[in-house]
Specification:
The protein has 103 residues and is α+β, with helices and mostly antiparallel strands. The protein contains three helices and three strands; from the N terminus they run αααβββ. Helix 1 packs antiparallel against helix 2. The N and C termini lie far apart (65 Å).
Length: 103
């Protein structure tokens, strides 16, 4: 009988773990997109297009790609994405990553 009482807590803990994994995936993908954007900018291609090509369909909506000048001819690209939510009552989260590549 005690196991049945703990079932909602176990389900909530499992969902929270899945949410953390989804957030980590979103951050890792944002990091890869920022690096792809910086590489593209380094060779003269559009950073935004290259970064968004790395993001999947679930992350590209609402994403922000910003290229800012860096010192010494380097290219700095920052990508921010919204984390897909597993828990509907949790406020929306976003993660961002930045990459700087120099010639």
């Amino acid at each position: 009988m005690e196991v049945v009482a703990l079932l909602p807590v176990l389900v909530l803990a499992a969902l929270a773990g899945v949410q953390v994994a989804v957030g980590a995936h979103a951050w890792g993908t944002a990091h890869e997109a920022a690096r792809a954007g910086a590489r593209a900018a380094l060779v003269g291609a559009p950073a935004s297009r290259a970064a968004r090509a790395v993001l999947g369909d679930d992350l590209v909506r609402g994403s922000i790609v910003a290229e800012t000048p860096a010192t010494g001819g380097a290219h700095r690209v920052r990508v921010a994405v919204r984390v897909p939510m597993v828990l509907p009552w949790v406020p929306a989260l976003s993660v961002s990553a930045e990459a700087v590549l120099a010639p």
